[in-house]
Amino acid sequence: MLYALHSRLRLLKWFVVLLLYSVQAIDVQLCTEQESVDITNGTMDGDGSVEYLGVRYNSSQYFQDGNIRKGCICLIRQCIYVCEAPEFVNVGLKELYANVSDAMGENNRKINLAADNRFHLILAEPYCEKLWFTLEQDHVIVTYKGDLNQNGYILNYSQFCMLPKNNMGMFHASYCEHEIRDLPYPIYAFGFLVSLPFLVATFVVYAILPELQNVSGKSLMSYVACLAISYLLVALGRLDVYEYILCVVSAYILYFMLMASFFWLNVMSFDIYRTIGGSRGRMTERRKFVYYSLYAWGSPLLFLSLILLFDHTELISYQLRPNVGAEGCFLKDERLTQFLYLYLPLLIIISANILFFTITAKRINQSDRTGAITINDNSGQHSRREHDHNTFRLYLRLFFVMVLSWSMEIISSLMTEAKTAPPQWVVYLLDFWSCLVGIIIFILLVCNERVKNLLLKRYV
Prior knowledge:
The chain is α+β, with helices and mostly antiparallel strands. The chain is built from nine helices and 16 strands. Strands 1-6-5 form a three-stranded antiparallel β-sheet, with no helix packed on it. Strands 2-3-4 form a three-stranded antiparallel β-sheet, with no helix packed on it. A hairpin with a 2-residue loop joins strand 3 (50-52) and strand 4. The chain is elongated, with a radius of gyration of 26 Å. One of its GO terms (biological process) is cell surface receptor signaling pathway. It holds the Pfam family 7tm_2.
């Protein structure tokens, strides 16, 4: 286990080195031309920040484009695109009304976005691959974060645009057809909340049965606890119940718990690999679980420390930062960011688990073929090996449930181009599968003869 821990730490070190090196290798433009403002004539302070037209840009919010200094206004204010407004480019737009909700998503008030300092208007049309659909004024609800709430779908500022006042004095909004790909957030949250009680029930069953509180059982309890907390935080985030500070805090906790769940799954795959490999008995169960806990809780803590460091220092460029809370209660919704800080570590862990399970399955097959388990075996040894094989099959099913979900999630995230993006029914299927994971885990871990007999023995 110590060797495996050192190997993971070496991988983490190289991950950090490559990430820092990439900062030097890439000439980063922090924002697009449309979302930048010429602040060349702004006033620069001693700390490197620039103030222009009442807006202060720190050194991570502007960049140099030749002789022109450009500030990324959308990193400071909530940007709103305005379509069909070429006549206002030179003179400016004085009126643009929309219904704006408060931090709780309620109390919609009609506000002039052009006169509100929280918002910045971009007089251009965002990119849209397919068709634009128009919303009537009464259905245009903009959140306090600058997103569009369209019947439960939350679209960020690059996925919709406002329209100037028409001849009837009405304001409308348009949204892009192909951008709506996920289930509505309330439905998505409800799916996770349905699964949550099954995870809690699984944890409680293992907690009240002393026979299940060996290293394997405690590892399963830790894994299920991580998933339960993750599901709760995801559901609350989808329901948009957080204010900004709570949103950021929950995002960091969610990241830690998601990573911890995969490291505990990694612990279980290593433990069964080690047990069936004949390493049993070299240390006490308690000491072994302490080592496992240090690894499974410590590794996510290292990753969390990294994203905290990158988010709150200028060690790396803004484009490569996690930007937790910038676009919802998780990592920034950008392919490179999520790959570096989430999918890449998960791919490494999943690959290690596949290796452990493959070697373990090969050992079991060789053991069966050479007659290692026969009728003449000592009954205690036979029972122990049978228990190990059952544990292996259980872990393998558990691993398959999680890997199927996350592997498809990773593939889906990488297929962002219009020609390669997965069809909408695939996205719905992935969402549905994610919501079922808690129920499936309950069936695998609790709905079996051994647990049933232990419960009957204890309470009947």
